[in-house]
Amino acid sequence: EEDLLNDVCREVVEKWSESQIVDAKEKKEDEVQAIASMMEKQAKIVVKPKEVSQEEKQRKAALLAQYANVTDEEEYPFPDPVGTQALSALNTPPALFRNTNVEDVLNARKLERELLRDEFQKKKEQDKLQREKDKLAKQERKEKEKKRTQKGERKR
């Protein structure tokens, strides 16, 4: 019976090993299949080219021409005293391309300060109201205590 038991155990271990190998192969095939399907999906995704209108093309050309004109004349950042460069190439006013980054940042900071100031004022008012409520509550407690002591003294 021991020989038979050893044979059965060996056979069970062999079958288990074979099943593990088959499972590993199936997992690898599944991974390969998943990667292939992901690559197919990515290949199907098509980025639509951005449609640029004629007006946007003209603006871009005017902007490029303006900066090319400025670097050629080397007058940047000095203002033109006569105003001959008030209208750049293609007769586009320079105000169309004004850089507002600094103004935007300053306005954002100013708005933030105002909001903080408003919040501080609200908190200050709430604290003041809370102090008044606390003061009234304290006063009422004192009055109740006073009435209670007066009642006690009357009963004596």
What does this structure look like?
The chain has 156 residues and is mainly alpha-helical. The protein has 3 helices and no strands. The longest helix has 55 residues. The radius of gyration is 42 Å and the shape is flat. The termini are far apart. 0% of the residues are buried. About 6% of the residues have low confidence.
Keywords:
CCD43 protein; single chain; CCDC43; 156 residues; mainly alpha
What oligomeric arrangement do these chains adopt? single chain
Hey, roughly how much beta strand do the residues contain?
Answer: under 5%
How would a crystallographer describe the biggest sheet?
none
Task: Tally the beta strands.
Answer: 0
In round numbers, the mean pLDDT is: 80
Provide a count of the helices. 3
SSE pattern, N- to C-terminal? HHH
Rg to the nearest angstrom? Answer: 42 Å
Low-confidence stretches: 81-90
Organism: Ciconia maguari
InterPro entries: CCDC43 (IPR037666)
Biased composition (Basic and acidic residues): 119-143
Protein name: CCD43 protein
